[in-house]
Amino acid sequence: MPLSFPNWTPESVIRTIYSSPINVHKNDLGLTLELSYITQQLIVCSYPVVKYPKLLYRNSLSDLVSYLTLYHGPGNWKIYNFKVEQGSADYSDENLASVLSQQSSPVGGSDGCSFASSSHGSWSISSPRGQSAVSSPDLPAELSNFIQRYGWLDHSPPPFLLLQQILDDMHEYLSQDPNRVALMHCKMGKGRSGSVVIAYLMKFMNCSLRESRDIFMNNRFRAGIIRGVTIRSQLRYLAYHELFLHIGRPLERPEILTEIARSRFKVTEVIIMNPFPHLNLDFKNCCIIVKMHVYNRSRNGLFEVLEAECNDLLFDGRLHKRTTSISVDTCVLKSDVRFSFGLRFKNNEFIDNITQKTSLSHCWLNLYWETLICSRNESLTSYTLEELRSEQGRCRDGKSFALFTIKWDDLDGAKGMLGKGVKLFESVTLRWQLL
């Protein structure tokens, strides 16, 4: 006898298959939604959409709003959108306002709330959190009660100050009522959402970094399939967050954030150890390109502040390795920076266009936190710019104070993957001064 799925639609079947790696919360409202409860108040999902064909396998915005309203109650939920890139099926603020408006007036009788669902037709069910309707928001003031957009680039960490702003906003919202929930999404509900969840657990639930990573991984993904937050730059920023929570008392944290916002830097040198270790190449025909970027104002792209070529090859007798270095004099007005490294052929444009894609590597770092990590000052106010500058001044020309060294294997590849293509060097050291 064939299996029967009377309540399943083609959309629900496809969504179930698509979300198979996800530890999906099962609801009794007749909705097929890919979402996971990390805690009772923290929910993570992939981004909801409003158009086909993505409605076949992504969450429907209408269904998601229906679920949140019915299951948690009107006014008890808020969406935090960390996805800055825009697609044709992505929802706008106007789409969300329209859904809220459509669901503001009950269509059925007084026994329950009835909504129009984009993929399940009309349905009616009693709300677990009461039967009052959602009032239609007036854009944009009241809509901020339902959504906050804090997006940044995919496969990247958030600017450190933005991360703290997100966490404090969420905590202020959730602490007002234990019945409230925050629903977070980026694209897949993995790297960006996971970074925020982990940081929240660390800051407001007193979990360690390791415990927080495990909580997110175990509640978001099925065992053994996905390891949660894995991109090295995102993990580096969570380590900064851990340092932030331990370095000062809660009352001092606003002062630390002020110091970060005020900090300015000058990048002075890039030193590359053992260039082209597995390639029979020299700097006559090719070179290693070093670039430095910061986020643009909207955080949907990058602004280039440095591009330099490594052309001169030296031999370090102490280390018995080849080295190349670039002396630069580049001022940076933000502490969050992205360094990237690539291969360029000098005399053949055709070959250069091809080889540019054979090696892609980068890393994000926060220059303030890396400066503080280099500090040997153990005073209670070692985090202040005044004390950091004083310590820098006591070093010889300030050149031996702030530096960051990273091995090739620890860099991020394209889209945050481990693979970076052709290995360009063994390690790279970046030096800068605090202005």
From TrEMBL:
Residues 164-220 form the Tyrosine specific protein phosphatases domain. Transmembrane segments: none annotated. Its EC number is 3.1.3.67. Residues 24-248 form the Phosphatase tensin-type domain. Pfam families: DSPc (PF00782). GO terms for cellular component: cell projection; cytosol; nucleus; plasma membrane. It comes from the Eukaryota. It is an enzyme of class 3 (hydrolase). SUPFAM superfamilies: (Phosphotyrosine protein) phosphatases II (SSF52799). InterPro entries: Dual-sp_phosphatase_cat-dom, Dual-spec_lipid-protein_phosph, Prot-tyrosine_phosphatase-like, Tensin_phosphatase, Tyr_Pase_AS, Tyr_Pase_dom. GO terms for biological process: phosphatidylinositol 3-kinase/protein kinase B signal transduction; phosphatidylinositol dephosphorylation; regulation of phosphatidylinositol 3-kinase/protein kinase B signal transduction. GO terms for molecular function: phosphatidylinositol-3,4,5-trisphosphate 3-phosphatase activity; protein tyrosine phosphatase activity. Keywords: Hydrolase. The keyword Hydrolase applies. PANTHER family: PHOSPHATASE WITH HOMOLOGY TO TENSIN, PHOSPHATIDYLINOSITOL 3,4,5-TRISPHOSPHATE 3-PHOSPHATASE AND DUAL-SPECIFICITY PROTEIN PHOSPHATASE PTEN. This is phosphatidylinositol-3,4,5-trisphosphate 3-phosphatase. It comes from Lachancea meyersii CBS 8951.
